Amino acid sequence: MVKRQTATKIRKAHRYLGLFLGIQFLLWTVSGLYFSWTDIDDIHGDQFKNENVDVISFNDLIKPSQIETKEAIKSLELKEIAGQPYYWINEKQLFNANTGVIKLEITASEALKIAEKNMHPELKVKSVDKISEVGNHHEYRERPLPAYVISYEHSQNVKAYISVKDGSFQRVRHRSWRWFDFLWMTHTMDYEGRDNFNTIILRTFSLLGLITVLSGFTLWFISSPTIRKIKKNKRHE
Fold it and tell me: What is the pTM of this model?
């Protein structure tokens, strides 16, 4: 039999561990429920995007070899920006595919046309801003900068992000996504970048959670009348 003093220590450890970990367990549960009850396509903002994006064809384009580049061409992509063809070379520079003239960055009006093509036509633009840097917790983190932010008049505070350098449509962000992002942070316990599952905090809480569960099983074992009865019967055999 376990001594009463030892049982009391285990019970206290279990109680205080449960109190300390309770908030995080609650956050894990709430975030898990949110993830399982939401449609990931809606979180990505597919409902705000244009499902029928027209693909424009071009004729009489110059050969890429005619373009004067500082480096040899390693990669080449034909892009359409506001109805005009551009070569995106080496994932660094834009060149007009008709004239070969370099394009340093897209304009705000071009960004609006790109957003108009990719976003739902019923959305009304509220403002256009240009950002050059973001923090670790920004909704546009780890994406190409600078970028244009197209804000829309919508209850979900919808925003579209477009890369200034190559005119690529990057991301749609809205209130439900922001809730998802916040809960994902509390779920992974990565309070810096969201996606690191190897943080010291997460490892510590996981180990303490395991200890809490094991201490609970131990308490049940040492205090269960059934277990006591079985042990007592064995001693009298």
Answer: 0.78
